[in-house]
């Protein structure tokens, strides 16, 4: 699949705490903007790849967009885990195999206001706990943050990782949001001291270790490399993609750090082999930042450093634009731009490789984009 | 009992009933492969090591160590409001390092919990007719 597909359009809506409109309206606006950015018409789109958990249905979307012949429809499961990069990879595989010409991948939700989507930071109130939840919820373990706290504590115990190390990730993403007019957290800078003083959610996770909850939509258009060359924007090629999961993910986002492999390391092994590049070739990284400890662990599992070295790795300034050698989530990420389940990170990666980013990384050629760590995940490497 | 006043009770899934029955009679039961003897958790129909479909339920010692824990201070469920701060822990059973249960620690102050501390199982009423396996310092 190397370089056979390209991202040719990106679009998004406003990111807010209450959109005041339907999730369909958010999806349609984000997709319309992406189509327009690509210089295409809605009737050029013949494929839709969505998150399984996205409430917008393929056929209703096709009706809204005026797609009269939908030739490809697919879903990427696992929420924010498999979703963002997974939906793009489904689109890339479809165009690379000739199943479709132009596929849209998107995420649109009213996750913060709850107009259609349940907030992840709130527990669903149910009469009983079924399936794997039977072994968690009766004990009061409900939210992803609470599960991540268990893995974060274990990491601290094994490797001497400190809360300040987690904080370095939050501070970097927040700094990048300050120049982004669409970032929810623009105008609210964050220091490591602010992070350390923020309230505890599930010890050791503090408020600023947790991503935002946001209403909004983001979309990208994928087409063949051949067609991409004739379109309005400079193509951003999908150099490689990979999926990854293990047998240890039966309990939500609980990780087992001593296992020889993780979902992210499984994906990373394929990803770098398929791309044929080394870690040092990455100019900017867009890691799915649901919780800071999982970003730290993702750097380890992606192979940027050894297991246990993530704390020092993220804390030396390398993640900070413009001077860091590996800028992270240059528009603010899930932590500070808006929580569109990582789709907004893909939009930003494309802007970087086109040279259109606000916090532009000089001469950015190659970007790494991941989906959520600690759930079945997906990752891709893009280049201009 | 209203769903908002207590954490939800477990719905025993098909094939895992013996774990929950064991809790209710005060025995910690773990699933073990009847062919190769490998313990597994969560309960599942086939042994991932030798692929045998035959398994047995073994009463284990109930002894283990704290693998990790969190102190939850932000209530996300209505029933959590009156309980924060409360702990949720993972306990690794002595019988097999792959047996790591999510539980609560009782009989210990939250600030005294440490990874590696030895613990033993106790069965605590969740609601009438339903006990849960929790752990106390051994």
Q: What do these coordinates show?
A:
The complex is a heterodimer of chains A (384) and B (138). Chain A has 384 residues and is α/β, with parallel strands linked by helices. Chain A has helices at 23-38, 58-65, 79-96, 144-159, 163-177, 192-197, 225-228, 263-275, 292-302, 310-314, 333-336, 343-354; strands spanning 5-12, 47-51, 72-76, 102-110, 128-129, 200-203, 205-206, 215-224, 236-244, 284-286, 366-370, 377-383. Chain A has one domain (5-116, 212-383): Peroxisomal Thiolase, Chain A, domain 1. In chain A, the strands form 2 sheets. In chain A, strands 3-2-4-8-1-9-12-11-10 form a 9-stranded mixed β-sheet. The longest helix of chain A has 18 residues, at 79-96. Chain A is globular, with a radius of gyration of 19 Å. Chain B has 138 residues and is mainly beta. In chain B, strands 7-6-5-8-9 form a 5-stranded antiparallel β-sheet, covered by helices on one side. The mean pLDDT of chain B is 96. Chain A binds chain B through residues 121-123, 125-143, 145-146, 149-151, 153-154, 157, 199-205, 247, 250-251, 254, 256, and chain B through 3-4, 7-13, 16, 42, 48, 67-74, 76-80, 83, 86, 88, 90, 100-104, 115-116, 126, 132, 134. Strand 6 (200-203) of chain A pairs antiparallel with strand 5 (63-72) of chain B.
What order do the helices and strands come in, and which of them pair?
The complex is a heterodimer of chains A (384) and B (138).
Chain A: E1 5-12, H1 23-38, E2 47-51, H2 58-65, E3 72-76, H3 79-96, E4 102-110, E5 128-129, H4 144-159, H5 163-177, H6 192-197, E6 200-203, E7 205-206, E8 215-224, H7 225-228, E9 236-244, H8 263-275, E10 284-286, H9 292-302, H10 310-314, H11 333-336, H12 343-354, E11 366-370, E12 377-383
Helix pairs in contact in A: 5-9, 8-9
Chain B: E1 9-10, H1 17-25, E2 29-33, E3 39-40, E4 55-59, E5 63-72, E6 86-93, E7 100-103, E8 118-127, E9 130-137
């Amino acid at each position: 699949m190397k370089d056979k597909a390209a991202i040719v359009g990106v679009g998004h809506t406003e990111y807010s705490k209450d959109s005041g409109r339907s999730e369909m309206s958010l999806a349609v606006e984000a997709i319309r903007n992406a189509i327009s950015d690509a210089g295409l018409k809605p009737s050029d789109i013949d494929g839709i790849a969505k998150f399984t958990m996205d409430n917008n249905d393929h056929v209703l979307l096709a009706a809204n967009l005026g797609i009269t012949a939908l030739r490809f429809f697919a879903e990427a499961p696992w929420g924010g885990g498999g979703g963002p990069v997974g939906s793009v990879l489904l689109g890339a595989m479809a165009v690379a195999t000739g199943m479709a010409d132009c596929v849209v991948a998107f995420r649109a939700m009213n996750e913060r206001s709850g107009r259609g989507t349940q907030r992840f930071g709130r527990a669903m109130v149910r009469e009983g706990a079924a399936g794997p939840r039977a072994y968690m919820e009766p004990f009061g373990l409900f939210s992803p943050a609470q599960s991540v706290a268990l893995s974060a504590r274990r990491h601290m115990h094994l490797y001497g990782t400190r809360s300040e190390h987690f904080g370095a990730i939050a501070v970097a993403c927040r700094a990048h949001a300050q120049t982004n007019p669409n970032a929810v957290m623009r105008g609210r800078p964050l220091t490591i001291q602010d992070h350390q003083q923020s309230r505890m959610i599930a010890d050791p996770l503090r408020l600023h270790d947790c991503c935002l909850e946001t209403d909004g939509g983001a979309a990208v258009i994928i087409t063949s490399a051949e067609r991409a060359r004739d379109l309005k924007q400079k193509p951003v090629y999908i150099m490689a993609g990979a999926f990854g999961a293990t047998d240890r993910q039966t309990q939500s986002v609980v990780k087992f750090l001593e296992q020889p492999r993780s979902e992210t390391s499984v994906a990373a092994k394929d990803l770098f082999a398929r791309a044929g590049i080394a870690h040092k070739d990455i100019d900017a990284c867009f890691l799915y930042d649901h919780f800071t400890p999982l970003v730290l662990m993702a750097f380890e599992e992606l192979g940027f450093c050894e297991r246990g070295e993530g704390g020092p790795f993220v804390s030396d300034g390398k993640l900070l634009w413009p001077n860091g050698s590996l800028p992270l989530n240059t528009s603010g990420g899930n932590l500070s731009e808006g929580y569109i389940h990582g789709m907004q990170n893909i939009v930003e990666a494309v802007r970087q490789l086109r040279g259109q980013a606000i916090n532009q990384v000089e001469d950015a050629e190659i970007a790494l984009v991941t989906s959520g760590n600690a759930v079945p995940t997906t990752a891709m490497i893009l280049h201009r | 009992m209203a769903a908002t006043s207590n954490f939800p009770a477990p719905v025993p899934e098909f094939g895992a009933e013996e774990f929950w029955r064991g809790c209710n009679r005060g025995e910690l039961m773990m699933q073990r492969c009847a062919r190769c003897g490998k313990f597994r958790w969560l309960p599942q129909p086939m042994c991932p090591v030798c692929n045998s479909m035959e398994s047995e339920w073994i009463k284990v010692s109930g002894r283990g160590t704290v693998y990790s824990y969190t102190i939850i201070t932000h209530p996300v469920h209505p029933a959590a409001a009156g309980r924060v701060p409360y702990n949720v822990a993972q306990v690794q059973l002595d019988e097999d390092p792959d047996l790591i249960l999510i539980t609560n620690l009782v009989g210990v102050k939250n600030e005294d919990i440490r990874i590696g501390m030895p613990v033993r199982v106790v069965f605590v009423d969740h609601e009438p007719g339903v006990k849960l396996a929790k752990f106390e310092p051994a």
